[in-house]
Write a structure and sequence with these properties.
heterodimer, A: alpha+beta, Alpha-Beta Plaits, five-stranded antiparallel beta sheet, four-stranded antiparallel beta sheet, 9 strands, disordered C terminus, B: alpha/beta, Rossmann fold, 3 domains, six-stranded parallel beta sheet, 17% strand, globular
């Protein structure tokens, strides 16, 4: 039987464990750019294992395309593990820092109220502006940003999305898919 | 033991049993060439006319011998001149280690003289690209580079040494470890942990499933792809095909994986495939592709490709599965190991009826016409007048298709051709590499006039090293394959494809100190080949052809495989 691939365009998260070596991020990112795909967000950070970095990439695409990129990615020498996560199977979070105009006391109070509703935090206060820290799903963060737009947003910095699987499963699990990637890698 | 860093590089080459290097020196790689001077008794260096020629020669050497090729070049233009050669090796999975040197650490990233980001450029066209900034890493990186190039799906690797790393006063700790024993080194252990060096655990269940599919098949077809050649699985494949009693279609890269004149051969497959192979794809009920990635020149239209068949892909590279054509079943592993497992206890099948339907569709031979030169007849003449184990290196275009269709290849490494990247000018470099690696064998280089012009400066390498390579130039005064497309698809508007210009290839050969011959009829071709074989040096035979000769049959790009544009 031919494998059925979901042809619907949706948001996938690709989690990749790599050796922390120079050029590894561009090696991974290149696999997307060569096909002309735009990465929605890319985050690179430390893990529980020293010398190993986790790269989380959010990409809009169909299953076949994600599957192929994951397979090609797992062949790269610094890549230790690859996992494809979709909306249902994982938890996704991002952090945003939002600098918003607060011209007077009234505006400041109103902003602080909104911030409390969203369980965000004010982390810097000035006479003309507040900086807000929010942690949550992309939709929550977007909703907050929309609410703050009325006051005038001066600047936003986002981390991009990080993701982890729900339940007991981890990226280290040796499932069938993982085994096949290991085969393919024996590129080596 | 402390030794010079450059000495360690040479010793690491000796660890890998490297005795031949192709290359071209320059400013930043001077230290390495200085060390090579001391190693000239152990390592032979072949100096080409151009770095691209060196890259193709190392590639040709690797393809023809099955060993890892090694190529040296300097920074900047030296490295960029290699890139076409690296990409050619990458697309055809040929194991070559390219070694370049870059400017020193203090000049890096400052747009210094002859500086370029070599590893960055090589990243998309290598299996791995190493930048060496610390001399102490040399042994680890050299060992890893050779392991990566040779294992799994083979391919090119680049190592870029900074100049200060190769400085004569750089001393490092080094211990000689032959490659067979180096798996125990820490660096090799960690590499093996993340990317298994040898895939030993082919899934037995996958193999059994394929056996069941084979037992049910009434009209099976096998495709012999480049993977059969790279894993040197020709004997296993032959046993498999004979037990299956199924027609075998051969891809361009599969040439040499299955005997060209075997009664089961249905010929080439794809754009210029034989009617037998292409019809078989369309009508088979089981298609087993071994080491074949269903490129757009084979599966021209993936949606209709083998539409009646269950498609099975056997490949070493997981990333090839379902890439171009969706498959019904796949086995991941080296062609040789998988076929060994499959052959064990495989019953003898009989598909006489199916064979009798397909195999008679093979191309009929063209009747003799002595007045006017016909490419097929030239090929037959070459075949009949050269030893059976002659290595053939081709360039890219019409002559390439004629050579693959009309010559017979019986073992891996007998056909050297740029199938994936389609690099014009590949042939002469590859022929040099093949001849250096196989001094006892005859090497014939088949070129078109366009391709020959691209790298004919390597004739000086042929002459200098006294390589008895015979270049047969199919001179039709045009960029034949492009003209063929213009003829069939672009309303005969021959835009910039007519090559009505010099040089006179006979005089050119003579200018390089080689023998030159010209043939305008079949008898002359035969005479020229005989003389060239006997002349003792390299030779060029200029065969004058009609510019409107076409490669037949032809299926247009993207069309269903049996929708022939030309019969």
């Amino acid at each position: 039987m031919k494998r059925e691939f979901n042809t619907e365009h949706k948001l996938y998260t690709l989690c990749i464990l790599v050796d922390d070596t120079p050029g590894v991020l561009s090696q991974v990112a290149r696999l997307f750019s060569r096909k002309g795909y735009n990465i929605e967000s890319i985050v690179s950070g430390a893990t529980d294992k020293p010398g190993i970095t986790r790269i989380s990439i959010e990409i809009l695409g169909d299953e076949l395309m994600i599957d192929q990129i994951a397979a090609q990615c797992s062949k790269l020498l610094p890549v230790k593990a690859v996992k494809i996560l979709d909306e249902e199977s994982c938890i996704r979070r991002e952090i945003a820092l939002i600098k918003v105009r607060a011209a007077d006391r009234l505006a400041r109070d109103e902003i602080i109220q909104i911030v409390n509703i969203f369980r965000a935090k004010v982390i810097d206060v000035g006479k003309e502006a507040l900086t807000i820290w929010v942690f949550g799903s992309q939709s929550k963060n977007t909703a907050l940003i929309e609410m703050l737009e009325d006051f005038g947003i001066l600047e936003i910095a986002k981390t991009g999305t990080i993701a982890i699987e729900r339940g007991r499963n981890t990226i280290y699990d040796n499932n069938k898919l993982q085994e096949e990637y290991d085969y393919g890698k024996h590129v080596l | 033991m402390k030794i010079r860093a450059t000495q360690a590089i040479m010793e690491c080459l000796l660890e890998q049993e490297v005795d031949t290097i192709f290359g071209y020196p320059g400013g930043t790689i001077l230290n390495l060439y200085d060390e090579l001077y001391h190693y000239s008794e152990k390592i032979t260096h072949v100096l080409t006319a151009h770095e691209q020629g060196a890259a193709h020669a190392a590639d040709g050497y690797a393809r023809a011998t099955g060993k890892v090729g090694v190529c040296f070049a300097t920074s900047g233009p030296g490295a960029t001149n290699l890139t076409t050669g690296i990409a050619t090796a990458y697309l055809d999975s040929s194991p070559v280690v390219f070694i370049t040197c870059n400017v020193g650490e203090n000049l890096l990233g400052k747009d210094s003289f002859q500086e370029v980001d070599s590893t960055g450029i090589a990243m998309p066209i290598t299996k791995a690209a190493f930048l060496v900034r610390d001399a102490q890493q040399i042994p680890d990186i050299m060992r890893q580079a050779f392991a990566v190039a040779a294992n799994g799906r083979p391919g090119p690797v680049l190592i870029d040494f900074l100049k200060n790393v190769t400085a004569p006063d750089q001393m490092i700790d080094y211990e000689f470890i032959p490659w067979r024993e180096n798996r125990s080194c820490a660096s090799m252990r960690s590499l093996n942990a993340s990317h298994q060096l040898k895939n030993t655990n082919i899934n037995q269940q996958d193999v059994d499933t394929l056996r069941e599919m084979i037992a049910e098949a009434k009209r099976p077809l096998l495709i012999c792809g480049g993977g059969v050649v790279r894993s040197r699985a020709h004997n296993e494949f032959r046993t498999f095909a004979e037990k299956m009693d199924a027609p075998v279609a051969i891809t361009v890269m599969g040439g040499g994986g299955f005997p060209g004149a075997h009664p089961l051969t249905s010929g080439m497959i794809g754009m210029h495939g034989s009617r037998a192979s292409n019809v078989a794809v369309d009508e088979c009920d089981l298609l087993i592709a071994v080491g074949c990635r269903f490129s757009d020149r084979v599966a021209l239209d993936p949606a209709t490709f083998a539409k009646q068949a269950k498609i099975v892909q056997i490949d070493i590279d997981r990333a090839e599965i379902d890439k171009n054509v969706l498959t019904d079943h796949h086995i991941i592993g080296s062609a040789r190991r998988v076929l060994e497992m499959l052959n064990e206890g495989l019953p003898q099948y009989d598909h006489t009826e199916w064979k009798q339907h397909i195999l008679p569709l093979r191309a009929p031979s063209v009747a003799a016409d002595s007045a006017h030169l016909n490419p097929q007849q030239i090929m037959e003449t070459i075949r009949l007048n050269t030893p059976e184990d002659t290595i053939v290196a081709t360039d890219v275009g019409q002559h390439q298709m004629w050579a693959i269709k009309h010559l017979h290849f019986n073992y891996p490494g007998q056909l050297l051709t740029s199938g994936g990247f389609g690099t014009m000018g590949f042939g002469l470099g590859a022929a040099i590499g093949a001849q250096v690696g196989n001094p006892g064998k005859r090497v014939i280089h088949i070129a078109g006039d366009g391709c020959f012009r691209m790298n004919c400066h390597e004739l000086c390498t042929v002459q200098h090293y006294n390589l008895p390579i015979i270049s047969v130039v199919f001179n039709n005064g045009t960029l034949g394959m492009v003209r063929q497309w213009q003829n069939l698809i672009y309303g005969s508007r021959f835009s910039q494809t007519t090559l009505d210009r010099g040089p006179d290839f006979v005089k050119l050969a003579e200018a390089y100190g080689l023998h030159g011959y010209r043939a305008t009829c079949l008898q002359e071709v035969e005479d020229c080949i005989r003389q060239a074989l006997a002349c003792g040096t390299g030779a060029v035979i200029d065969c004058v052809l009609d510019m409107d000769e076409m490669v037949r049959p032809m299926v247009a790009a993207g069309s269903p495989i049996t929708k022939f544009l030309l019969d």
